[in-house]
Amino acid sequence: MSTRELTVENFEETVTGNDIVLVDWWADWCGPCKMFAPVYDKAAEQHEDVVFAKVDTESQQALAAGAQITSIPTLMAFKDGMLVFRQAGALPARDLESVISQIKDLDMDEVRAKVAAQSAQDDPSGTA
Question: Would I find Disulfide bond among this entry's keywords (predicted)?
Answer without folding.
Answer: yes
